[in-house]
Amino acid sequence: MSGPGRGRPGGSRPGRDESPDRLYTLTGGRSHSDTDTFDLVTLVVAESDPTPGMQSEHVTILRMCQSPMAVVEIAAELGLPGSIVRIMLADLLDTGRISARHPRTAKADDRLPDPDILEQVLVGLRNL
Fold it and tell me: CA-to-CA distance for 57 and 74, rounded, in angstroms?
């Protein structure tokens, strides 16, 4: 097991040992984002490559999200609290560097076949 947040002394949880100053710097002093776009299962996809001078965590997020990745996975990989990651993701979303989408949940109506088709199949079976 390697990567940020893993193998911390004493087995403490990722993000718990982070300096408050570092977390303050990562979020620009904000304690929450201005958007409700991100929950833990929101899928994030990079829309651009990192550019010189970007915050290292933003660069890491863009590289990780070349294919869709859930917010909870990003937080785990970075070893940061989800709330901090959501703020950083909101910044990337505001600049158009990422897109966010919620996994589609199938409604019950979407899972059931169309009744007209079922009736046509039944008629076809009876005609056999």
Answer: 10
